[in-house]
Amino acid sequence: MRIHSIFVKSLAFAHRDFINEVSYKFAFFMQIFGIFISTIMFFFLSKLLGDVGTSYLEPYGGNYFAFVLIGIAFFSYFNVSMEGLSKSIREGQMLGTLEAMLVTQTEIPTIIFSSVMYNFLFASFKVIIYLLLGVFLFGVDVGNANLPGAFIILLLTIISFNSFGIISASFVMVLKKGDPVSKLFSNLSGIIGGLYYPISVLPAWLQKFSYVLPITYSLEGMRLAILQGYSLEALLPNIIALLIFSVIMLPLSVFIFSYAVKRAKIDGTLTQY
Amino acid sequence: MTYCIETFNLTKKYPIIRNYRDLLLHPLQKKESTALCDVNLRIKKGELFGLLGSNGAGKTTLIKIFCTMVLPTSGITRINGLDVLHNGKKIKKIIGYVICDERSFYWRLTGRQNLKFFAKLNNVPRSVMETKINDLLSFMDLSHEADRMFKDYSTGTRKKLAIARGLLTNPDILFMDEPTNALDPITAQKIRIFIREKLVNEMKKTVVFATHNLHEAEELCDRIAFIHRGKVKITGTVEEIKRMVRAEKHYVVELKKPETALLKKIFAFPLVKEIISISDLTETNTVEIEINTKNGSESIFHIIKHIIDIGGNVCSFYQKELSLANLFSRIIDKDLN
Hints:
The structure holds two protein chains of two kinds. By secondary structure, chain A is mostly helical. Chain A has twelve helices and no strands.
């Protein structure tokens, strides 16, 4: 019953955001158009690179375009988790809609998670478009893809990324602006998380830092599952790493968030910005 | 007597945001401002209760505590016997908060879509949702505008939709924060009539209504609490408060411009309880002194005699009819002094 209620509410949020987004017709069109632009851009970039760096890309099949395509496609989930949650709170505070939602019978965690439901669905839509473009227009080979493995990695990715997103949202709840978590993690993950290049190109000392970021395991696991078709057993190190992140970070983030809500209620700043 | 809302010594203090200099000099010091101080209120079931006060008096803070949006610093607050500190979920099921701020809606969604979204958040069952929304829209006379975007609504229509949203769960208690604010007099009057006749008389709701408009509170509310600087100054029915006002006898004495020494002697006279005001009338070269007497009308003749005895030249005097506005502004003035 409770899960059904959460599901209904999440869909209501997604429906609300969809109506809102499509009402800005040009902006909506540009969002879709952007997917094509970035795919084409990385395709020509991969042509330019040719065989340069093939040794680094060998574990992922040796094709830079396929490598970066998976990277940018699944990085959307990272962005939604890291920035979407805090952004939805900030927007609600600034627009004035947060207060109206908080007096309803929906609990705060449901409001927060549901607020990014549309973004997650849109990110999934983008991933599908990226993959379809890659496969049908640019010849990316996903014939061996281990889809169940990729799904498990995706699920753990969302949970572990969201944990950091919740901590980031907690900062917004109390400090309103300038949360250090999302900025720090977004920048670090972009640079050393293996988004545009494999982490093996980084100096050895910097690679050590890559391994404390969940995105490293997430992108690597996803590439190995989709491009190389690794079995669940072979994907186990990435799955375990993401599981550890999820088990530690999720309860911690929920605790921090509950504290932040209480703090904001004491300060009377729940809906201020 | 059944009270559905009770507060006992309710106090709310907000931390003050300090500047950089203050933070550097006193990093551990805490500064607070008191929004509510020892508020004791009892609101009866089915009554239309007005929270009256100027801007910043503490009305919104009080409503937000009732709605579990703000936690009190100390004291007890109960809604239908449930403590707001520990029963947030249960309380939200029995209350409705009419947020009249138009920013609390989604502007690019229609009125119906907005109501549907908030109905889902309020666990309104799917089977009755459509009927309920249609009923509310027709109840609020909004059916013909329901499928237009919220951004295209007039201010009055937006307020009506806010009331409809507050009624989605058919709550026993409704909190309204200045629902007629920024409305033209005719629409404001329509909403007032709706609140009194439909919500309170017909639907038997308990309505707590925050306003800074004295006439609105006087016309609409069964009982009023006048709040100033976080403190409840007076509580009672409009009649009770008016009786308190009538009990005070104010007289205006006009006399030829007196010397300061003479004025001091008048102020010091034992039957003068309080000097309310002194106005200089330059055209007639006189002054008008508003006096609150100790024993009502009996004293005024002694006071007049005393003024004449000490050399004052009394031109006229009359009893001043006090209004609620006079009383409230006196409370505010006393606080300022």
